[in-house]
Amino acid sequence: MSTTTPPPEHTAGPTDRSTAELTTRPTDRRASAGTGALPSLARVSWARTVLELRQFFRERDAVVFIFAYPLIMLAIFATVFGQGGATVGPEPGIPFAQYFLPGMVATGVMLSSFQNLALSIAVERDEGGLKRLRGTPMPPAAYFLGKMGSVLLTSAIQMVLLIGLGSLAFGIDLPSTADRWLTFAWVFVLGTAAGAVCGVAFSSVPRSGRSASAVVTPIVLVLQFISGVFFVFNDLPTWMQRVAEVFPLKWLAQGMRSVFLPEEAEAFEVSGSWQHEATAAVLVAYLVVGLVLGVRTFRWQRRDDG
């Protein structure tokens, strides 16, 4: 007598749970029971955003690095370089903490958008999660909108933490006019959006999820050193300034300096002005280029899957 061994039960992983939440939620089934219609793109995108946030905060090491790194660097630079009331620029000068806050804000945006997505998507692809998602009824656009939504929210949390630390611990003066906060808003949104789409596009560069960190992290560190994040931008060699101008982090940091530094600091810039028009143009250009490259190069499965 032969015995048939039942197939092993499938244990749902994070991606399987993601699919289940998006496609079989009771509220969605009730809403579409009479018409057979799938949930709207907006509804699925919001559900995906919530799920992305949950998954992000479950990865404790990534959360600690992305949130704590700019805070720690701001505290170090403000404490070390600000000893004895040292300042940047001609007398009376700008306190070091005040000068370095905009660079750390720009770094926080890049970590939460570009680095976060470039790494996480590469890992999801390598583990087969993207391939499984592609086979579900979820619209592909909902996946990317969910990523964008989670990045905007995590970046906003990052900004609150950084600005709060600067104000409470180091006495940094915050903008007091609506114009300054409006500038902060459009620089933040454009910078986050450009970083996110570039992160999606760059996620196809690493050959595997394991190598993603080795590919992405050095690029982020180098850009921080040449873009006026760790050093006064005017003090950098001219050739380094020219290289930095090609990349968005320099413009993001300069845009943030126009928000948090006093008006007289505009004269400290290499060009002698904040260059808001150039900042907007560069960030929009990276947003468009990132979208085009992302559409043309994004892969839902590993290279060895064919």
Structural overview:
With 306 residues, the protein is mainly α. The protein has one domain. 69% of the residues lie in helices and 1% in strands. The chain is built from twelve helices and two strands. It has helices at 14-23, 26-32, 41-58, 60-81, 96-126, 129-134, 140-170, 178-202, 209-226, 238-244, 248-260, 276-297; strands spanning 87-88, 94-95. A two-stranded antiparallel sheet has the order 1-2. Strand 1 and strand 2 (94-95) form a beta hairpin. Helix 4 (60-81) runs parallel beside helix 7, helix 5 runs antiparallel to helix 9 (209-226) and helix 7 crosses helix 8 (178-202). The longest helix is centred in the middle third of the chain and has 31 residues, at 96-126. It is elongated, with a radius of gyration of 22 Å. Residues 1-34 have low confidence and may be disordered.
Alpha plus pi helix count: 12
Q: Strand pairing plus helix content: what structural class? A: mainly alpha
Shape: elongated
Helix % is: 55-70%
Strand order of the largest sheet: 1-2
Strand content: under 5%
Report the order of strands and helices.
Answer: HHHHEEHHHHHHHH
N→C terminal distance: 43 Å
What is the residue-mean pLDDT, rounded to a whole number?
84
Number of strands: 2
Give the C-alpha Rg.
22 Å
Low-confidence segments, given as residue ranges, are: 1-34
Largest sheet: 2 strands, antiparallel
Count of domains: 1
